[in-house]
UniProtKB/TrEMBL annotation:
Name recorded for this polypeptide: diguanylate cyclase
One Pfam match: HDOD
GO molecular function, one term: diguanylate cyclase activity
Source species of the chain: Stieleria bergensis
Domain of life: Bacteria
Length: 489
């Protein structure tokens, strides 16, 4: 035995089975062992005696008459069952004095033992021996977990490292896997050679006939003890049971329900946590309910994500100061807007508006006053818009409006209405009432026959420039022209 392995097996924190277990191991393979020999060994341990009697009175045995003495239990169970049962119960009292999760380990081991015992009924294995083999199958996990406890709890919570301890990590820690280490520990405990050989030779990637039942038993145990299982996890165990043990669906269901009943029988003897389900039917129903809840939750999450995306999209399209649609929104909207106008042969006007002498508000009163002016103009333009008109803050003190369903004269009139509305309003700032005016350029397109947005904007902007040149606080309207300078009509 190499030094590292010896350090694990002979470590000061490595527990040994109770003395009674050692004596029972001496009797297990002795063909001359009699009932009186076993009774004498068991009777030395009051706790083991009480568990043996309680087992006989449990639903697992369901005796016709209540068992009250060890002698009655011995007679009821028979010599071989009693030897293996007493050894199993005694081994489960093996505990480490460290913070190793003993209860969780033996709970998981009991699950494998019960599954192995029930599955043995599908073959020709001895069910009591299968129970004991399932119980000690992962004893190497306990050995490695105790020996390297301080390192493992630096990586994982103490309650979870049993699930997180992988073959790769075991090799990294000690150069061997749990099965090899477990076999060496079982040798030290003087377990039967055939059990040691089965544990040591186990390879989940190359299963032999001796190992298929244990492989499936571990999967059954994981399912049995799970707080919650998915339909996919249940189906995975069903597939393994069919592949390795040729169990039909009905056989699987019957065996799983038998394991549940066996668990409740043993649970009372060891005070382990109860199961979360009463049958395979109950588990599958809960899995379906969980899937429905998950689906509803996903739908809700998707709706919330969609709402958030819409909100983010709206934020990206909205001017933070005025609340108007911004330049990004204009760029996104203008193509579809012009296409709609054209499909309806609807005449449309593009108005470019600019606040007159805006810089003076900032220079004289400060930027807060300028912000008030921008908000005041935005509010007035929005107020005067018809329901099918659109207004955008294009940038700085410039606004763009799209007005549909209008002939040329109406477009010019609407622009003047906007201009006069701004002229007549006053913007409050501290104790001052600020007078604001705007200049406007209008490009009117007959039946939306010109859809080149760049050309339309350029012509509306030219009209705005002319309004500024004419003294500001006025509007100039022109009919759209094509690239040859001809009026579009």
């Amino acid at each position: 035995m190499n030094p590292e392995l010896a350090r694990i097996i002979d470590g000061e924190n490595m527990p040994s089975p109770p003395t009674v277990a050692a004596k029972l191991l001496e009797l297990v393979d002795n063909p001359d062992t009699g009932l009186n020999d076993i009774s004498r060994v068991i009777s030395v341990d009051p706790k083991l005696t009480a568990k043996t009697i309680a087992y006989c009175n449990s639903p697992l045995i369901a005796p016709v008459k209540k068992v009250t003495t060890l002698q009655q239990a011995v007679t009821l169970l028979g010599i071989r069952t009693l030897k293996l049962l007493a050894l199993s119960f005694s081994v489960m009292d093996t505990r480490s004095g460290r913070a190793f999760p003993n209860e969780n380990f033996w709970r998981r081991s009991l699950g494998i033992a019960i599954a192995a015992k029930v599955l043995s009924s599908a073959g020709d294995q001895d069910d009591d021996e299968s129970f004991l083999l399932g119980l000690i199958f992962n004893v190497g996990v306990m050995a490695i977990g105790i020996a390297f406890f301080d390192r493992l709890v630096q990586q994982f919570d103490a309650d979870e490292f049993l699930e997180k301890l992988t073959t790769e990590l075991e090799y990294e820690l000690c150069g061997h896997d749990r099965y090899f280490v477990g076999a060496r520990l079982l040798e030290r405990w003087h377990f039967p050679d055939r059990m040691i050989q089965i544990v040591e030779s186990y390879d989940p990637n190359r299963l032999t006939q001796d190992h298929m039942g244990l492989f499936v038993a571990q999967q059954f145990s994981d399912l049995l003890l799970a707080a919650e299982s998915t339909e996919g996890q249940i189906l995975k165990v069903r597939d393994s049971a069919k592949r390795y043990l040729d169990l039909s669906k009905d056989q699987f269901d019957e065996m799983f329900d038998n394991m549940v009943q066996q668990w409740y029988g043993y649970q009372g003897l060891f005070d382990f946590k109860s199961l979360k389900h009463a049958s395979i039917e109950d588990m599958e129903a809960k899995a379906r309910e969980s899937m429905v809840r998950l689906s509803l939750g996903m739908e809700q999450t998707i709706r919330e994500m969609h709402t958030e995306q819409e909100e983010l999209r709206d934020l990206a399209r909205t001017d933070n100061l005025t609340g108007l649609l911004n330049r990004t929104a204009f760029d996104q909207d203008i193509g579809p807007l012009m296409k709609g106008y054209q499909e309806r042969s609807e005449s449309v006007g593009m108005i470019v508006a600019d606040i007159d002498y805006f810089k003076q508000f900032n220079d004289r009163y400060g930027h807060a006053a300028g912000d008030n002016v921008l908000c005041g103009v935005a509010a007035k333009l929005t107020e005067l818009c018809r329901k099918h008109d659109h207004v955008y803050r294009f940038g700085g003190e410039e606004f763009v409006l799209m007005i549909g369903e209008c002939d040329y004269a109406a477009a010019a009139t609407i622009a003047e209405r906007f201009r006069k509305g701004v002229e007549q309003m006053r913007v409050g700032y501290n104790e001052d009432l600020l007078k604001v005016t705007i200049s406007m350029g209008v490009c009117w397109i007959d039946s939306a026959k010109l859809t080149d947005v760049e050309q339309i904007f350029k012509q509306a902007d030219a009209c705005l420039y002319e309004a500024k040149k004419n003294g500001r606080n006025c509007s100039v309207a022109r009919k759209a022209q094509d690239s040859m300078g001809c009026t579009v009509s």
